[in-house]
Design brief:
heterotrimer; A mainly alpha; B alpha+beta; C alpha/beta; A: mainly alpha; Helicase, Ruva Protein, domain 3; 6 helices; 63% helix; elongated; B: alpha+beta; Tick-borne Encephalitis virus Glycoprotein, domain 1; six-stranded antiparallel beta sheet; four-stranded antiparallel beta sheet; 19 helices; 10 strands; globular
Amino acid sequence: MKPLMAVLTALALLSGALAKEAVPLAEDPAVEQRMVKITEELRCLVCQNESLAGSQADLAKDLREEVRGLIRAGKSDEEVKEFLVSRYGDFVLYRPQVKPVTYLLWGGPFLLLILGIIALVRYLRRRNRQLPDTPLSAEERARIEALLKDHRP
Amino acid sequence: MIPELGLFALLLSLFAALALGILPLIGAQRNIPAWMAFARPATSAVFLLIAVSYACLTWAFYSNDFSVLYVAAHSNTRLPLMYRLSAVWGGHEGSLLLWVFMLAGWSLAVARFSRQLPQAMVARVLGVLGLVMAGMLAFVVFTSNPFDRVLPPPAEGRSLNPLLQDPGLVYHPPMLYMGYVGFSVAFAFAISALIAGQLDAAWARWSRPWTTAAWIFLTLGIALGSWWAYNELGWGGWWFWDPVENASFMPWLVGAALIHSLAVTEKRGSFKNWTVLLAIAAFSLSLLGTFLVRSGVLTSVHAFASDPRRGIFILMLLAIVVGSSLMLFAARAPKVSLGGAFALVSRETLLLINNVLLVVAAASVLLGTLYPLVIDALGLGKISVGPPYFNAVFVPIMLPILVLVAIGPMARWKHDEPKAIIGKLWPAAVIAVLAGIALPWAAGGWNGAVALGLALVGWMVAALVLQAADRFKKPGAATPSWWGMQVAHFGLAVFVVGVTLVLNYQEERDVRMEPGDTVNVGNHQFKFLGVRASEGPNYQAWVGSFELYRHGRLLRTLHPEKRNYGMGTMPMTEAAIDVGLTRDLYVSLGEPLTADKENGAWAVRVYFKPFVDWIWGGALLMALGGFIAISDRRYRLSVKRAAALAGARA
Amino acid sequence: MNKFVWPLIIFVALVGLLAVGLNLNPREVPSPLIGKPAPAFDLPQLANPEARFTPKEMQGRVWLLNVWASWCVSCREEHPVLIEYAQKGALPPLVGLNYKDKREDGLRWLKRYGDPYLVTAFDADGRVGIDYGVYGVPETYLIDKAGVIRFKQIGPITPEALEKKILPLIKELEK
């Protein structure tokens, strides 16, 4: 028994020694992190409802590899995006660029808020002019008391 | 036979709905009691007929009747029974039948629970609902018949998309539809009031529980969808600002505005026109959502197979329903009285500001969702508007709302003093600042966004406590209606905690693991034990085993899977999640990296998601709050009391 | 004007927009390369790995670059159309770009379905495809004498597309 136990213990220890902290899947975690950050804001052109970061489509994998290459070559985030936009158009950007065509898009919500507040203020002013507060007469007051007494739950 | 019976019942229901739509409305207009009385039984008839039709379709799925084209396209014999039955709404035709079935259900509920309403009103409300049902039934019958046969019938049906074979599929669409469709009741009440020329506080009181009920279902439906995506899609996301998600979120926002607006109209008789417009808008957005999903106008992961003919029909339906409502509104609104006066500083004003914010938020979502279409239609190119835009635009609009949530309930109706409000709320402000400064450290490190989020949460929760203290001073003042509000607002705070903490402190590791390897994430450790082959009812699987440790102590073993459903589908990832009150630990299998799947290396992704369940917990609380609010006794008023009160208010 | 009419007006505009939208295809990605010089490349030929092909060789001529692959189902739909029109002599020089394929598979495919191409370049890793903005095979580019891309056909070339758009444009460019 003893030799067997020794062998088994040795094997157990050995396998424990072989087990280790898992290595990151990416070759270069820093590059990978930047790649994911950039591609999270890009649309996959094949599975058009997924980001380039998450899509499992072949083209998405190719483009992610392309982006890694560009990052390693020292390109900035802007340059990487420009690379893809010049080939696939603005459609690939999930964050629309701010240019004349999208002024209304980016400015719209703020504009709507301002309009809403203006409309609100004008409405309140007009209302208070149209509805002067009239105090109750004694008779009306008595009537209300009676009704409330009647209908108290 | 059964499918034919189903189609026949559907056709009959179309005629019944038309009758329901036409006769009671004329009866109410011309004061013909018999025609008005026709509304309730007609509603029951429509419901029964649609129920029969739906049952026939369900039977076709249950019995694997592949001679029905729709069944063959969405189900097969190996599909587990639960998914066979829920596949009924897995495609366009069946989901529309579900839609109209639920509309019939809501109509029946209105018919049943409206004893205290005047007959003319009931006739009009049911009539309007009948017209909408007729429109949808016509759509189903003429363009989307679920009972179409295919001959010769295939021996086996196509499989249901594996993504949809999940318990979430069973509950998410019905809940969502209950919500969407439920707003039709508020809509019908609004239209009826406009037709009758009678917009008053009583109308608001009647509409409110129905609106809240619909909103509750929508809240649950959206939360379920989000939770399902988190569980099923394997990368821990829970909201994507996808066009169809937006299509359900917009009615939710407008519905929330509507609930608050109805409260004011009910109590003070103010905002009537605005409330009516919101009621029309909420249901219009529901219909718009239905259009967007089925017309092929936008790309979306949710989109059903599109057919231009269907798109045109739905657009026409949308145009007719909403267009005529808005025409009616334009005609009648100028004649509506303004209701009670209120000062610049008052609860009314605060609620009005809240409404403006919610509507601007909904409008912004609509803008972002439709903008690519606008640009394309104008020939100006093709752009995408995705999460970065919506997050950038939506969050700033929500922040003031979170601030207002605390102030509104504290303010008095009609007139209040800023000093008085500040006097009541300053402790909450102090707590907010403290929370913003101190709590982020406890959560995992200081950061501006977290500080802001937690400060707002501190503000809201402290205000809730202060309000409660204030309320309990008066015996009997804490009604279910008040409790509902508190719980719902608290739910909102819980939701904000979840979102703030998970977005800022979540951790992800993408690693290569061999059996025996460990990976650390968020103070926990995963140990990979290996993978073994397994089989499910309609799939083959590779099942991984991971031990979860914290501080060296084994918590449990998790089993993520990689499933292959065959029939040419992509492999599916089933993540394994250890759910906890303050965090989720999430592990999913990627690809095998060596030929030896059982003992070789795999790509593994692990997540630490702090407080992520507070997101859906908060939503549940919001729904609960709504439910408590509806249970308030005062919604069950007799006709006499309602009439007396209405008379006294003149 | 009655201010309560505004919601109706806005709604009518919305319906108009949606009606137009029904005729558009939201999934189609138009190419930003139209009007720009065709990206340069230097690839081995499919049939003869020793020989190369670059777009420069086609300078001075109007030509078509057709991206295809043996694994692409739609390409099989399009191929007979190309062969028919090429045989009629209705097409300008047709150059193939075999995209992300295996050489043997590509050659076998051409042998089986016919080879209307002047030459086929072999883009094994798809990098040239990326440069051209290829996202779904088949795609075809019409390039003019100066080497500028004038038109991109997304999806299979149909007789209709040829007659209505491509051939008339070719006639223009040949002048």
